[in-house]
Design brief:
The complex is a heterodimer of chains A (166) and B (501). Chain A is built from six helices and no strands. Chain A is mainly alpha-helical and 166 residues long. The two termini of chain A are 47 Å apart. By secondary structure, chain B is mainly α. Chain B has a two-stranded antiparallel ribbon with strand order 1-2. Classes of the chains: A mainly alpha (166), B mainly alpha (501). At the A-B interface, helix 1, helix 2, helix 4, helix 5 and helix 6 of A face helix 8, strand 2, helix 10, helix 18 and helix 19 of B. Chain A: It comes from Cohaesibacter marisflavi. Chain A: This is Tripartite tricarboxylate transporter TctB family protein.
């Protein structure tokens, strides 16, 4: 990378502003921009900590105090309740689904059957997890939908369009 | 007129199909046009560019329009941009004028959509011609401008910028691409990750993860509640029936709102609710009966819906002329172009004139289909919003997996990327990070790096960013305006918050 200092027009202008001169070593140029980004992220993080930090601390303190009072805490839980069962259940099912898909697919290579065979139980289980009022009718629709939709998706994508599936 | 030969029945069928699926997505609260496009992308793998775009543009128009259904009937915006439709649409439903409100909104949407398509057609090629002369310096400044604009629309200025820069950071993972003039060295990762992340994270799994999986996680946290009460009958036709005379005297409103929508859509990185909020407040300022707005005035619905469909054409302008997405949905469209091996930028329209013309046809046709489908089948669509989510969400996760897996022809790592970014999107929003700035940063990050480093390598001084050309200075003025505007907005917001507190 030739240095730019021998540009006659440039030097005249840059005399007063040699501060702004930058030369980049090509071998290290892949680190130049990421370094700048790191600095920006760091500065922003500090600014955020300065402006938002006090607010968050105040909130946390307020919440800690609320928890001490027995009546107030119950009310709070009602409004911002996290449905841990559905959230974690979904995560576990999804991870399992992703994890099993490929090994199953390897039993029937290049058919996309791994996708089909894992999607049906996944959809069935996830729907069952999500449904609020399980009844006969709901189970029939869940069963039907979890068999039909993966089959249609598999048939259209893997068979008709030759899209690679696990 | 050679492009006419591309217009097969298949082409129109795909636009129509896209619009209908889009409307359904848009009509279901919590699912957006962005999600519709992201989830349906795998279907385009097997199509060629023109047919693929037909489908995606249909989805885009349908998705944005469908949002008005739950906004009017349930007071839940189906897409963020229909938030202001709820202000007047829902009161109209309460008065028993649901169908009138819906049809008013649909007609206004058609106007906004066509209006913005025309602007797109006239404006994008000349902007592209202008942008061809841009060097690295100006291109970098445009990206910088895009990043400052998104920041100004974030809920929290600092966190918005932080999210955007974080997106840039994620986009830099991998090698500094030789084909862009980099040195091919790896950075920001360990040796163990090289086989997976050689060329960084793929755009699509990141997008689908953030918009698809992340959204479903948020819903799961809330326990997948159904917003539509069972057995609750909606009285659609109690009051004044719909007639086109609603639009009498609303021409100025229509044009102003559509223009505002198109203009806001054009600003890179902006999208969603900003356009409709802006035009709604303008309508309120100019209205003869400002006191009626918010209590079920059709003009409010008109302003909001004309603006949010005006977005569609507007957001495509920077995408097709500069290669910079106008909103998060067009960001996903970039993925579709990349998939077909087409580089978006100033040269796109000139080099792909046929594609450009067919896109315009698709956009116009999509708006017409949207109008006819929604106008005449509105009662059927209303039923769609009652599809239970426990059936819908598992299906969407399944489609997300297909999209992520198939994008690079069967790499399981992309499916894990999907999960990673799904979790990232979900947890990130807990601590205040924002998805839209992140995505824009992620998409533009690599280009920003190349333009920035190349500018410095060839000029050797930071001052070049100010002195390169008059255009560069104009861009700096725009950047400055955007920064000042966002700081002003932040201060104003703080004052408001203090008042409320």
């Amino acid at each position: 990378m030739p240095c730019q200092q021998d540009h006659p027009g440039e030097t005249a202008m840059a005399d007063g502003s040699s501060l702004f001169k930058v030369s980049i070593d090509f071998d290290q140029s892949h680190l130049f921009f990421p370094n700048i980004i790191h600095w920006i992220l760091l500065i922003l993080a500090l600014l955020i900590a300065l402006t938002e930090g006090p607010k968050v601390l105040r909130k946390m303190r307020a919440r800690a105090e609320e928890n001490r009072g027995p009546e107030a805490s119950g009310e709070k839980d009602q409004t911002r309740k996290i449905d841990w069962l559905r959230l974690l259940g979904m995560l576990v099912l999804t991870i399992l689904y992703f994890y099993v898909m490929e090994p199953v697919g390897e039993i029937f290579p290049n058919t996309g059957l791994g996708f089909l065979l894992t999607s049906i139980p996944f959809m069935f289980l996830l729907s069952t997890l999500f449904v609020h009022t399980p009844g006969r009718r709901e189970f029939i629709t869940i069963t039907l939908s979890s068999i039909i939709s993966p089959t249609v998706a598999w048939y259209v994508l893997a068979q008709m369009f030759n899209i690679t599936l696990p | 007129m050679e492009f006419l030969s591309y217009l097969s029945p298949m082409f129109f069928a795909l636009v129509g199909f896209g619009v209908i699926v889009g409307i359904i997505f848009g009509a279901i609260p919590g699912m957006t046009a962005t999600m519709a496009v992201a989830v349906c992308l795998p279907m385009t793998y097997a199509l060629d560019l023109i047919n693929g775009l037909a489908l995606l543009l249909g989805l885009y128009v349908g998705g944005i329009s469908g949002g008005l259904v739950p906004a009017i009937l349930l007071k839940i915006p189906g897409t963020p941009s229909s938030i202001t439709t709820t202000f007047d649409g829902y009161p109209m439903t309460q008065k028993g004028e649901g169908e009138r409100a819906l049809k008013t909104g649909i007609t206004a949407s058609l106007f906004g959509g066509i209006f913005s398509a025309v602007i797109l057609f006239l404006f994008a090629p000349s902007l592209a011609d202008f942008a061809i002369k841009f060097s690295y310096v100006e291109k970098f400044l445009i990206i910088l401008f895009a990043l400052t604009v998104i920041a100004s629309l974030s809920r929290n200025l600092l966190l918005g910028i932080f999210s955007g820069v974080l997106g840039v950071w994620f986009s830099l993972i991998g090698s500094y691409d030789i084909s862009y003039g980099g040195n091919g060295e790896y950075r920001l990762m360990t040796d163990a990750m090289v086989p997976y992340l050689e060329s960084g994270f793929s755009l699509l799994p990141v997008l689908i993860g953030l918009f698809g999986l992340g959204t479903i996680m948020q819903e799961a946290e809330k326990g997948i509640r159904e917003e539509v009460g069972k057995g609750k009958k909606l009285d659609l036709n109690g009051g004044t029936p719909f007639s086109f005379s609603v639009f009498k005297g609303e021409m100025i409103n229509l044009i102003r709102s559509s223009s505002l929508g198109t203009f806001v859509g054009m600003l890179p990185g902006v999208g969603g609710s900003a356009a409709s909020v802006l035009s709604y407040t303008q309508q309120k300022n100019f209205s003869k009966h400002p006191e009626k707005l918010g209590k079920g005035a059709p003009e409010g619905v008109i302003a909001s819906e004309a603006a949010n469909n005006g977005l569609t054409g507007g957001a495509l302008i920077p995408l097709l002329s500069l290669g910079i997405p106008g909103d998060s949905t067009t960001a996903v469209l970039i993925g579709a172009f990349t998939l077909q091996g087409i580089q978006l930028g100033p040269l796109f329209i000139g080099n792909n004139l046929d594609t450009w013309n067919t896109m315009m046809v698709a956009l116009l046709f999509a708006n017409l289909v949207m109008f006819f489908v929604m106008f005449f089948a509105i009662r059927t669509i209303v039923k769609v919003i009652t599809i239970p989510k426990y059936l819908l969400y598992p299906g969407i996760i399944m489609m997300c997996v297909v999209g992520a897996y198939a994008i690079n022809f069967g790499i399981m790592f992309d499916v894990w990327t999907l999960l990673f970014f799904g979790l990232f999107g979900y947890l990130g929003q807990k601590v205040g990070l924002e998805v839209a700035p992140f995505i824009i940063g992620f998409i533009l990050g690599k280009q920003a790096e190349v333009y920035f480093v190349k500018s410095l390598e060839s000029f050797g001084s930071l001052t070049i960013f100010f002195t390169k050309s008059p255009i560069a200075m104009v861009l700096w003025v725009l950047i400055l305006i955007s920064v000042v505007f966002s700081i002003y907005g932040m201060i104003k917001q703080k004052k408001n918050n203090n008042k409320h507190a």
